Amino acid sequence: MKVLQGLEPASVFGFFEDICNIPHISYHEKELSDYCVNFAKERGLDYKQDSMGNVIIIGEATPGYEDVEPIIIQGHLDMVGDKVPECPIDMEKEPIKVMIDGDYLTADGTTLGGDDGIAVAYGLALLDAKDIPHPRLEVVLTVSEEVGLEGATGIDLSCCKAKRLLNIDSEDEGVFTAGCAGGVRADCSIPGEAETKSGVVCEIKTQGFLGGHSGIEIDKGRANANTTMGRFFLLLKEKTAFDLVSIVGGVKDNVIPKNASATFLVAENDIEAVKAAVAEFNGYLDVEYGVSDPDIELVLEVKETAECKVLSEISKEKAITALNLMPNGVQAMSMDLPGLVETSLNMGVIQIDEEGINLCFSIRSSYVSAKDFIGAKLKQITEMLGGSVSFQGQYPGWPYARDSKLRDLCVKVYKEQYGKEPKIDVIHAGLECGILSSKVEGLDCISIGPDMSDVHTPDEKISISSVARVWEFLKAVLAEK
Ligand SMILES: [Zn+2]
Hints:
Number of strands: 23
Distance between the termini: 40 Å
Bound molecules: zinc ion
Strand content: 25-35%
Low-confidence stretches: none
Radius of gyration: 26 Å
Number of domains: 2
CATH topology of the largest domain: Aminopeptidase
């Protein structure tokens, strides 16, 4: 018995349930990719599958639509695999259990993969329908979006004729995404020198930091655990002598770090001064982050006396300088679109010990020039401190187009269906539209999608009624001549 039987639109939910029954987390999309290929074969549709697993399926124009401009319908095949600790499902190999909860679909203990299985379901349902008028459809389904937009980066779109692309990977019905930031990762590396010292070992840790997505949440004023640690040592320097053993923090360049910890040595007599410095510093955090990150503090643990390898005095100075002088956070707000962050960076991961000082940043901007400028600043500071920078994983932005026929068409259809204006948004994060539009000269893109919440978590939900309304919207957009 199918769980989603009876839901409308039946074809969309039918394909969605099939997709839920095929494991398809990032890097494990082959089975779903093959399912799409079989779908095309069974219906005699032209298709292309590349070695990564990206699939393109062509649906020729229905009668009367041969002269209408073709359109790409696009989404990604992979999903984030996250689950609650007690869930026994092996998401690489076993299907999730989809459930209905009022107006929502969710999965039992795991992510649902509405992001972005719903786009795949819409695409297949459009290709499968006998009664939906449309121009030539080019359904483009990519792999490994969630792990760095890899499928979009690798795909060859030369078999596509369309110069317009409707991406279905947004999570708010009624919000059309019309631009996104580009970005790059910067790894700054400064060699260190070691000394051996003895003293009382002190450990300090961050606690209660909220962290977040380094694009979407960079303007929330939350504290960065790594730079906070740097600032603490700037204060401690004024209060007492100490030797630095290590500072480590963060998990990924594109996540605002929640956790950082440091180990340092002090003389027995200076322990009270350290405790006073921590208390003074926590007082500053309380006041400055009372609204944006109210529960943050540094927690000190005083341990035994020991002899250990520490950073030389000069390496310690370099580390504290790098943590405090490297730019971090929002650098510029957009003057085109109020409230949009234009340029930012996030000191995501740090590893500082006697072997060296390593800082990893995610830089984002709507403008390539502004992104490059931030990269140049990091390079200048790093080189002044005797180190070097490497840049990796560059991805192009999708600049907001002042004129977009596809956006105008979507706005017109939306107003007819909903009786109100949609919101047009530009996001400070990477989207596949950025990469795909850099591959096709003049590609006119927009990103839409039904209401979803808590994506990338086991609480992920998708609204059934919203899926139905977006289906009507899609059909109406395709019916326009
Ligand atoms: Zn997605």
